[in-house]
Amino acid sequence: MHDLAVGARARLALSWTRVRRTAWNQVALPWGRLRRSTWGRLPPWVRPFLWFVLSLGVLVVPAFDDTWMRMFFLVALYATLGMGLNVVVGLAGLLDLGYVAFFATGAYTVGILGSPESPAIDVQLAWWLILPLAIGVGAIVGVLLGLPVLPLRGDYLAIVTLGFGEIIRILLLNMTDKTNGSSGLFNMPRPSVEYLHDLGLTNRHVVDDVRAFYILIVVAAFVVWFVTARLRDSRVGRAWEAIREDEDVAEGMGINTTKYKLMAFSLGASIGALGGAIYAPFIDTIVPSTFSLLVSINVLALVIIGGMGSTQGVVAGALILIGVPELLQFQETKDFLESFGWLRTVLNAPIDLVNRVTHLGIENLPPSEEWGDRLASYRFIVFGALLVLVMVLRPSGLFPSRRRQLEFEAPPEAERPQSEGIT
Amino acid sequence: MALLSLHGVVAGYGGITAIKGVDLNVEQGEIVTLIGSNGAGKSTTLRAISGLLRPRAGTITFRERSLTRLKPHEIVALGVSHVPEGRGVFSRLSVKDNLLLGGYQRRDGETVADLERVLTLFPRLRERLGQAGGTLSGGEQQMLAIGRALMARPRLLLLDEPSMGLSPILVQTIFATVRQIQQQGATILLVEQNAAMALEVADRAYVLESGVVTLAGSGPELAGNDSVRKAYLGES
């Protein structure tokens, strides 16, 4: 009797493990079938490329109004930042919680060198001239922040980088003679497209509306994607992965860990700065409070949700984490919710009934015109729930990288080759 | 001139001095073993040689070059490969990636040929190439760690406790492989707690006690030594 119970429990435990191993961890995504058919037969290098075009390029359709384009711009911007952070966290395994520092560096480089309001220097450089400078400054700041944290690992590294993110923001706030402090910098230089204008490709002289900025960020995202994807598959990428897995052993294998860690920091930082340099003219006014901890957290969360180390994942993560909260504020969403006015009548009837019989005093539902606003103010709750859901259903992210898959989804016992003799 | 020689090497961790002036020589083509009890400083000696630990005093020369100031990756480039204690397999990378990382510094384009050589030496790894390193059994992981070190085409292979946690039969297999590696031209410095096995396979041996070398001699010589028999071979 006792044995039976133990057996049953063991079986239950076993079946639970099996459930977790298979169905639970591999909840089929709607495009699963697509992947197996035509998608799977495409050459491997074409797939991420197509993904990119599908997820970002398609959205350039001019049918969208400015609110939507703004959302798409932010999605693409965060996807770019995500790819940058992915180098540091996903590839080299260095948990950086202060990524916003580099984003701010890029934005403020543009502000200080390009804004006529900048109190520090009396020059106004063209945006295209500042861009490489901003990327360079980002890389240098990345190395400078990387040097002191070289010996730190894991949690300790996370705490110190978290501090760096805040230090930069507070510095920007207090270096009033260079940054104007809390009043910030405005009138950013616009990226000139005179050359394209002369070629007759565009009718504008500078990038100054949401649509143009969107195209600019997509181009930048594409370049970043290309650079990081190529690096990931190179010697450098292998060194990063080895460091991520075990720094000591990587060192013993003959990998110069100092060099590659600094490289990861500075590459990640320069991508962050690139994002900042594009963001500055887009938003036109930069103030220190824009560069809060929330930016770092958002970027890190989208990398994790998407699947560490994978580029498609970053794009998907940005769509969910940046796109959804924006979407919840749209007039369209509000209108859509308003059309559910009948639901209020249906739900309020039982509430009234309960209130009449008891003294609970449950509040009636607000009129449906308010639902949109309520949802918009609760968007971070929706967002948090979504985050938990994704992590429970797909612990290695929406699009786990091939190597990450090995880690979380080990083949079931039966599929493993049986060894004879040596075990 | 010996391939590797240590003179008065002192090294330790923080406030603890683990080795207090170690002298030893390894000649080209030999298997030299370092035996001693727990905490005698065997692993520390290897870590000092491969640069994972910077010695506080003394000199380490390999092929007439001083290693004391070099970084681990520079030492690997000179031809020293270290198989760390506990194997240090990259458990989340595939077996193939593990092996390829061993040849990280090689730029001669012969890594593919060497991969084949290692897989011939350890046929079991061939069956496991696509599997994550962490899913391998203890013996297979040890083979992987040794194979990975061989991918660097080392002149000197530092083996730290290859028999640890393995069944007696498997220990035999591993030691047979160590002999095979020597016959293929590598020099081996072997650290072992399993003194009986180590002395059987070694040309020469050193006994390390509380951070200093107390005895040295050929393998059979030490195996016959009374104090060694008492202390390490479990005889009375």
Would you mind describing this structure in some detail?
The complex is a heterodimer of chains A (423) and B (236). Chain A is mainly alpha-helical. Chain A has a domain at 47-309. Chain A is built from 20 helices and no strands. In chain A, helix 4 (66-91) runs parallel beside helix 10 (210-232), helix 4 packs across helix 14 (293-306) and helix 11 (235-245) packs across helix 13. Chain A is globular, with a radius of gyration of 25 Å. Chain B is α/β, with parallel strands linked by helices. Chain B has a single domain (4-231), classed as Rossmann fold (3-Layer(aba) Sandwich), CATH 3.40.50. Chain B has 10 helices and 10 strands. A 6-stranded mixed beta sheet of chain B has the order 6-7-8-3-9-10, with helices on both faces. In chain B, helix 3 (95-102) runs parallel beside helix 6. The longest helix of chain B has 16 residues, at 168-183. Chain B is globular. Chain B starts with a strand and ends in a 5-residue tail after the last helix. The mean pLDDT of chain B is 90. The A-B interface holds A 235, 238-239, 241-242, 245-246, 248-258, 403-404, 406-407, 410-411, 416-417, 419, 422-423 and B 50, 52, 71-73, 76-77, 82, 84, 88-94, 97, 100-102, 104-105, 124, 127-128, 131-132, 135, 137, 139-140, 148, 152, 170, 173.
Mean pLDDT of chain B: 90
What is the terminal-to-terminal distance of chain B? Answer: 39 Å
> Would you give the CATH topology of chain B?
Rossmann fold
Can you summarize the main beta sheet of chain A? none
The number of domains of chain B is 1
Task: Please bin the fraction of helical residues of chain B.
Answer: 25-40%
Q: Largest sheet of chain B, order of strands side by side?
A: 6-7-8-3-9-10
Please state the CA-atom Rg of chain A, rounded to the nearest Å: 25 Å
Number of strands of chain B: 10
The computed structural class of chain B is alpha/beta
Helical content class of chain A: 55-70%
Largest interface: A-B, 29 and 35 residues
Structural category of chain A: mainly alpha
